[in-house]
Amino acid sequence: MDLGIAVSEVVFQAHGWTHARRVVIVRQRAKERDFIRGRELFDDPAYLYQAILTNREDAPEEIWRFYRKHADIERQIRELKWDYGIDWFCQKKYFATEEAFRLVCVTYNLMSLLRDKLRYPDAGGSNSSER
Predict the structure, then answer these.
(1) 28 contacts 5 by C-beta, under 8 angstroms
(2) I want to staple 27 with a disulfide (CB 3.0 to 4.6 A). Which of 6, 72, 82, 115 is the partner?
(3) What is the average pLDDT value for the chain, to the nearest integer?
(4) What is the pTM assigned to this prediction?
(5) pLDDT at position 117, please?
């Protein structure tokens, strides 16, 4: 496991659920310039906590690594939605919507390349060590 990270699991059944579910719990030492997160699970500034509800049968560490890869994709989807408005352009015809989406994706990719060339810090801070 990576330094400063602890992973565990528990089986949990909330009121109203038909069956129990597996929850993988991750505790990670907080970094000074960490990415923007949602609500905090605990008021503990030294650590970041994450709970992953899953039906996967992999080891807890592998589940954390699997979902960690998706975090960057989620950030890109949020950026496309909020900064480029992909949630408003549904047209009456399917192909018009597809073309609008492709145009937004091309624009997003061009802006990402420009940001990298200018070394402008992105919202996620993924390359903050290079700056």
Answers:
(1) yes
(2) 6
(3) 77
(4) 0.51
(5) 86
Cα–Cα dist 108/101, whole Å: 10
DSSP 43-84: S-TTEEEEEEEE---S-HHHHHHHHHHHHHHHHHHHHHHHHH
Which residue do the tokens 């400063």 mark? 4
Give the position of tokens 């960490």. 34
- Ordered by start, the domain boundaries in the chain are 5-130
Using CA atoms, how far apart are residues 106 and 29, in angstroms rounded to an integer? 37
User: What six digits make up the tokens of 77?
Assistant: 């989807």
User: Do 86 and 101 contact (CB within 8 A), yes or no?
Assistant: yes
Residues 90, 100: Cα–Cα separation, whole Å: 8
Q: Encode pLDDT of 23-46 as tens digits.
A: 999 888 877 645 545 556 667 777
pLDDT tens sequence across 116-129: 888 755 555 454 44
